[in-house]
Predict the structure of Enoyl-CoA hydratase/isomerase family protein.
Amino acid sequence: MSFETILVERKGAVTLFTLNRPQALNALNSQVMEELIAAFAAFEADSGQLCGVITGSGEKAFAAGADIKEMALKPAAEFFAEDMFAPWTSRLVKATRKPWIAAVNGFALGGGCELAMMADFIIASESAKFGQPEIRLGIAPGMGGSQRLARAVGKAKAMDLCLTGRMMDAAEAERAGLVSRVVPPGELMAEALKAAEAIAAMPPLAILANKEMVNIAFETTLDQGLLAERRLFQVLTATQDKAEGMAAFVEKRPPVWLGR
Ligand code: CO8
């Protein structure tokens, strides 16, 4: 599979996706979306791939948003008819059961911040900047920026960012709970790949179940979430990898996962 706007590399059981339009600060146009959807589908279908990392090429940006030049002349009827931006959630988030990490290396603005928030967690470099500046263009977030941001950082900061369009640096984003780790710029990719490799070394079914469980917390009541958690936990106790993981602990040896 060859792409023009993204790079896809397999590193052992980890797939690295790189947004590759550095001349446009990796702005997300329709071609990027189509290519990412195809690349994510291949990642999801490949049983040898267990975790993904997405980043932006160049040092300046993860992605500076949806492509403003592409949107500028597009009629409203087309945005509506195409249900523009819906596939980002349906294909990258809903259809991808395997975890993926956003390694944010610079600007993550508008759709760039929204794409990073679609990932299961964000590792940021100290130079990262997050924001939802759409209001300055006469629009508003359209790929989850109001919803996922509010869930991640709470109402006060989500309102502040959406209404002022200001940028938040990596330290503020970490304090607010948007990112899980902040590292020096030169260490970003090593840290993100190390995290992905650590995940990929876990039992495959437990990887899927752990991701699913945490996501359920954002979709349902506490009672329903706790029930779903118990059921998934109980399902995992029937796997061979549960037997192997516990036997390995008792026998003081490393486990060998079977993925069943
Ligand atoms: N789209 C297209 N091109 C872009 C974008 C973008 N989002 N961002 C940057 N570029 C291009 C610039 O046009 C420029 O290209 P050129 O050299 O051909 O002029 C090149 O990238 C470099 O950018 P700058 O020269 O502007 O670089 P600076 O370092 O001066 O500034 C900034 C960096 C601050 C990041 C600046 O580029 C900027 O403000 N970019 C736009 C950020 C933004 O507003 N993002 C939100 C876009 S809207 C969105 O993402 C959500 C859409 C939801 C719509 C829902 C509708 C239904």
User: Anything to note?
Assistant: Strands lie at 6-11, 14-19, 51-56, 61-63, 100-104, 107-109, 121-125, 129-131, 167-169, 181-183. The chain has two domains: 6-201, 204-251. The mean pLDDT is 97.
